Amino acid sequence: MNLDGLKDVFAYLEDNFDNDLKATQQFLRRKSISATGEGIRETAEVVKGMIEEIGGTSSIIETPGHPIVYGKLDEGARYTLLIYSMYDVLPAEEPDWISDPWAAEIHDFKDYGKCIIARGAVNTKGPTVAFFNAIKAYKKVKGNLPVNLVFLIEGEEELSSKSLQEFMQDNKAKFAECDAMFFPSFGEENRVASIFMGVKGIVSFELKAKGGSWGGPTERGIHGAFAAWVGNPAWRLVKALSTMIGEDEKEIRVEGFYDGILPLPEESEGALRNSADLLDEEEWKKAYAVDRFKWDLQGLDLWKKMLTVPTLNIDGIKGGYIGEGSKTLLPHEASVKMDMRLVPGMDPEDMLGKIRKHLDKHGYSDIEITEYGKSYYPSSVPYNSTSVQTLKRMYEQMGARPQIWPWNPGSAPYYLFGKILGLPYVTGGMGHGSRQHSSNEYCTVKGVLDFEKSMIYYLSLFPEVAEELKNSQQ
Amino acid sequence: MNLDGLKDVFAYLEDNFDNDLKATQQFLRRKSISATGEGIRETAEVVKGMIEEIGGTSSIIETPGHPIVYGKLDEGARYTLLIYSMYDVLPAEEPDWISDPWAAEIHDFKDYGKCIIARGAVNTKGPTVAFFNAIKAYKKVKGNLPVNLVFLIEGEEELSSKSLQEFMQDNKAKFAECDAMFFPSFGEENRVASIFMGVKGIVSFELKAKGGSWGGPTERGIHGAFAAWVGNPAWRLVKALSTMIGEDEKEIRVEGFYDGILPLPEESEGALRNSADLLDEEEWKKAYAVDRFKWDLQGLDLWKKMLTVPTLNIDGIKGGYIGEGSKTLLPHEASVKMDMRLVPGMDPEDMLGKIRKHLDKHGYSDIEITEYGKSYYPSSVPYNSTSVQTLKRMYEQMGARPQIWPWNPGSAPYYLFGKILGLPYVTGGMGHGSRQHSSNEYCTVKGVLDFEKSMIYYLSLFPEVAEELKNSQQ
């Protein structure tokens, strides 16, 4: 299938785009906040309906956490693609949204032209609903898709996909016919579109210092004047944290933190060299409102730092009186939310053990560690897999330069698809959006249409590429 | 005047105590939260009414912040006492109140018997309203008081008395006839009642680390994956803070922090030696839910630590995502609320300069310092002053052992009364309450009655003691 063969579907998409845009906005207006559970179940029902509307079968499967929406669209095709996505989003408590994050209004936003401003616009309810819009159009114009689809759409991605691993282990049979996994997303920026051949791993956890046998108030904050007599858990947390990192975050001082990291494959080193020029560093800094990169890194060094080095980040810190004005208080506890991002060769469970050991060694055995959700292993898929090669060809033929990365610096539970189901995976699509996890998360309106076209093309290409790869291996 | 001469007033107080208790509860039920302004103006009006009800004149005087209630009760007496108090309280957001902090319910609380549980029960709306109850009773039974009163009741004590200094400087004439200042409070614990001959000083301030030219996101938090490229203001704050204090808070490492501290006067050293046995250390730890004193201090060392050593306390720390669950975020700012408590010889303005210098020296000139409200100088009054001697005699004759301290480890703007008006001051009264600034702030019901009696006795003694001191100095 080439692009000419899809002209009729693309024309249909263009003609009906107003409806698709409305459907996209409508889906974004639903709250589906996994952290609080708000709107989760209702949204799962809606997603089930979306699968059924394109002619599939679907069921809502309970987990110990939020339900998973499972579905199948059997088109009698030779190959089957597993579509993995999520229907949950983060809260949207940031104060500086230009419009209600749940109103999904369209604004001219910065240099991006018309954009939908909404929590989930890019991560990931925007692409999810647009994917269904695309399938609907294809089926209307062409009939059956050239590939079967299996859907796994979870509601806990923003809670580290807590229930996903167990679900997959217990339900391998549900995915037996799948040939690859694809996660639809807006992957384009200025006609450059990224292909990540894997993901960094992640461990999210909390450290909590509480009053106890070492000192400090144990049940409640007490008057600040007693600082003369009683130790302060906030000071304790600060001192403990400061042992974990060097000046200017130059190195992580947790013993053995960098042990076992695998060297970057030669193929990936090459990909990086080809990509270093692609980042407009000044543009990036402007977009993210950052004045300066760490240690004035630039060019290839910047990319190497992102992709080959693990991080230990403070996501949030809290303790004592944090309201308006002042209150002299000696708090009884203080806590910090952190995440580690891991590169291949690092094991999440080991890493948490290293944090524990470090704290103990420095005299902070009282500081509690709580892991949030499931940790993710770092993982990668081969360059020569169907998922990657289909995406590469799709981008090239749709006029975007494919930018191939060893792995995504963000994190996702993709490793499970390799580890449990043995599937190659990739994430992508045309279209643009950004500011995920921040205020004014957006996607461009034009990008929604481009994305819909690219999804149709990806699904059309997949069986062809699969055949070619199979033949070339024989 | 001896206690026998007040029997009729005391009997009246006992007979009418139900009404006084109700009035006390009613006053505590009013919110008057200076941090938010809630109920402030209404409560100022009520206080004005209380002064008028005892036959005084009163006016509400505007300030740049919350209004001050000024009043006079001219009894044609020779001596005049300035009654300084406050009508504002802290917020009451602590989660573990056993009853609504604004309901002022009466409960059997711990070992203290019947107590009023309310924000402000001890600090300081409880004593304030009970003071007026006492005056009302005295005037009903005896007619004129033996001393004139001037009232200065402010609404910003919990905001470091921001407007008080300017008000006093601009209105010295309003206090020209005053001979001493008295701050009514519940000063008793197990028949031991404290007399503080001064107060520690305090500086409350915030340090804020923000993204800027050093690095870090400048406008909003960004995705935590970018920790590979972008510095984290929360790490920066942690590293900066950790330079300010030694391990286990053993010493404050801000350069020159301890410079200029005056040695404890011999008289105070003696008072401390007499007092060390008075603290039941195990009892105190139980009451404050603390397992262990700093560095296992005990006895005289404990008291010396409290009274002769300044502190640098973390009141609260905040940055990034502090909601439920996890969110991988690289925050754009992090801040910490702190207070320093100062002993004689230390100057609040100097101290803030030392913090600035310390941060600059360690490379943190970007970290902003904001002072909260006005700082308080440490100060003390002579042992042989009317205020102290009247209180001492009152306690002794009412059956409480007076416990004389060099100064209060808490802080209050009392230094202004010495510095601007040249008045000796003291704070005290019978009655017991505690847990100020915490959940379940309380005062005992019995203590309210004891306090009312003690106020009548204090006012009756004052002119006598003043005469005696005058004669002894001639």
Automatic annotation (TrEMBL), chains A, B:
Source organism of the structure: Gordoniibacillus kamchatkensis
Q: Which InterPro entries match?
A: Cyt/Met_Dipeptidase (IPR051458), Peptidase_M20 (IPR002933), Peptidase_M20_dimer (IPR011650)
Q: What Gene3D superfamilies does the entry give?
A: 3.30.70.360, Zn peptidases (3.40.630.10)
UniProt keywords (A-Z) are: Hydrolase, Metal-binding, Protease
Source taxonomy lineage? Answer: Bacteria, Bacillati, Bacillota, Bacilli, Bacillales
Please indicate if the UniProt record lists Transit peptide as a keyword. no
Give the PANTHER family listed for this entry: BETA-ALA-HIS DIPEPTIDASE, DI- AND TRIPEPTIDASE DUG2-RELATED
Keyword Hydrolase listed = yes
Residue intervals of the Peptidase M20 dimerisation domain: 200-364
Name assigned to this protein: Peptidase M20 dimerisation domain-containing protein
Q: Specify the domain of life of the species encoding this protein.
A: Bacteria
Q: Which residues cross the membrane?
A: none
